[in-house]
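Backbone geometry:

***
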Amino acid sequence: MLWLVLYLPRLPLEAFPSLPSPSAIVGRERVVVADRAAASAGVMPGLRLAEAWALLPGLAVRQRDVEREQAALARLACWAGAFTSEVCCLPPQTLLLEVAGSLRLFGGVAVLFERIVAGCAEQGFAAQAALAPTPLAAQWLALAGDDRPCLDAAQLPLRLGRLSLSMLAFSPQRQARLGSFGARLLADVLRLPRAGLARRLGADFAADLARALGDLPDPRPRYVFPERFVERLELPMRTENAMALGFAGRRLIAILCGWLAARSAGVNECLFEFIHERGTRQRPATVLALGFTTATRDAERISRVLIERLQRLELPAAVELLSLRAEALEMLPGRTASLFGECAEGAAGAAGDSVAALIERLQARLGNDSVHALSAVAEHRPENGSRRISPRLLAGKRSAASLLAAAAMPDAGCGPRPLWLLARPQALREVAGRPQCAGPLRLLAGPERIESGWWDAGEPDALGDLRRDYFVAISAQTEWLWIFRCQAGWFLHGVFA
C-alpha cells in the first residue's frame, strides 16, 4: 500500500474564504491561525486575542467553526475521488489517500503527487503533503513538512528518525517525558527498548511506533461518499459578472467529477444555483441547468458548457454563494485501452464523445430547441419519413455515424434518398417538357412512384393524399437534385450531399 497524506494547517482560516485580510481565527480567546498579513505583524497561533488586537487593531476575527471545517474536508474528500476511491478523513485537518492502484493510471508517483498537490491548491487549500507505505508514517512526514516521497518500507526508520519530536502531534506531557529521556529526534526514541517505552509511556505509544514502521497493521475507516451530490461554495467576494463565476464553478465541477469517479457514474444533467446577496429585497436564486447528450464525468466537457451558458447569462443581483446539485446518475465505467493501441471500437467511442461535446456546445449557444436529432418513421411520404427528437434520446449511440443513422435507413425497395429535404417543395419551371433549375435538368434515375395518404387527408396541417413521380436529376452546375412531378407540375424536394 502507498498512502498520500494532505495535512491542512490553515483549514480553520480557509473555511472562511470571504474573510478580509488581515484576519485570524480564534478559539477560547486565543489565536488558532492567522493569515500572512496578520502573521507579518506578529499575530501568531496561541496569542491572546487582546494582545493580537493590540498588535493589529484592524484585525478581522472569526470564531473557529468546526462544522464548517469538516464540511470543507468532506468536499475535498469528494474531489479526491478522481484519484482514488480509497479515501480516509481524519478530522480535524487531515486527508488520507491510498494511491498504490492509481500510479500507472496517472503516469507514476511524481506525476500523481504533483497533480494532487496542485489540484488541492486549486480548491483553495494550502496542503503539506507526504507519501509513505504506512498511513501514520505519511502523517508524521506531512506534519514535519517533509514532502519527499518514501516508497520503500525499509527506509522508514531512517526517514522517520530525522523528524524532530517537537513537530509531531504528541501531547505536551508525552513531549516532556520523552525530553526527560534525552530524546530530541524520533531516532532517539526508536533506539529505546519497546518494552520499556510501553511501561513508561503506555502501550498505545509503542503500538503507534510499530504501526508507523509497518510492524503492525493500521486499518483506517474509509470515507463513505454520499448518495446525492449537493455542494455549496462561498465566494471570496460578491460579484455581478456572470463570467467571474466560472472559476468557482470549475471548482465545484472538479468536486462533482471526483464524486462521480468514486461511484463509477456519470450525469446527463446538473443544476447550478447562484444565491444572491441578502438585502432589503431578497431575490430568488438564479438556476442554471446544464444538460449533456450522453452521461459524462469529464470536468472539461462540463466546464465548457458552463462557460457557454455564463456568457449569455444576466444576473439580476450580485452573487455570494454557488450551489451545484446532481441526482440522476447513470453507471459509467471507465474505458479499457487495448493491448496494441486504440482499436476501431475505441476510435468510434472517441468520435461519439466529440460529437456529443459539439452538440452540447451548440445547445448552450443556440438553445435546446435549435438543436435536434432525426429519427426514422415508418412512413413512405418523404415529409413524414423522419421526426425531430432530442439528441439525448440517442445517448446510447457511441459513434458519430450512429447519430445520423436514423435519417439514413430507407427500406430496401426504395430509391435513393437525399440527406437534405427542403422544408417545402419548390416549384420548378418547365420548358419544352423539361424541368428547369438554373438551366435545364437532366434526369438520371426514376421515376419512383410515391402515392396515397388518404388516412390523414381530413386532419389539419396533415400532408394528406398525394401522387408523385420522383426522379434523380443533375443541374448545369452538377448539383444532384431530387425532384418530382405531379398534377401541379415539377417540384424540387431535396439535394444530395
